[in-house]
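F.,

This is the one I mentioned.
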């Protein structure tokens, strides 16, 4: 149950576009909040709140360097999330493959089409 709650926190954390931008920014290098806030049109306090949400979800780590707190990406929860999503991807792959087969069979010569669009195609133009 704790694992599921953690994943929920990760989903909540990445749901916000600002936090996704923060993750992208921190994927390149470790940065202090003052440098991070220079990339956003919001206060340093607001950026810090977003960083706290990411840290609570395990997506960001911080460390003190003198008087400064530096932040960096912690990708492990994203890898867990990727594995979790990969499990469900097979359902989409099966559905998309079935849809592709259906469309290809429907478009093959000699195949009669059904439904309102097919009826409209069969009606002669005035």
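My design for it:
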């Amino acid at each position: 149950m704790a694992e599921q709650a953690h994943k929920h926190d990760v989903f909540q954390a990445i749901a916000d576009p600002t936090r996704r931008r923060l993750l992208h920014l921190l994927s390149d290098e470790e940065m202090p909040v003052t440098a991070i806030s220079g990339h956003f049109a919001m206060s340093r306090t607001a950026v810090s709140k977003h960083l706290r949400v990411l840290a609570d979800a395990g997506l960001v780590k911080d460390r003190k360097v003198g008087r400064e707190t530096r932040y960096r990406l912690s990708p492990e929860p994203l890898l867990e999330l990727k594995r979790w999503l990969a499990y469900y991807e097979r359902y989409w792959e099966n559905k998309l493959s079935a849809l592709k087969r259906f469309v290809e069979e429907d478009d093959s010569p000699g195949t009669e089409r059904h439904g309102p669009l097919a009826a409209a195609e069969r009606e002669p133009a005035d």
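The chain has a mean pLDDT of 84.

Talk soon.
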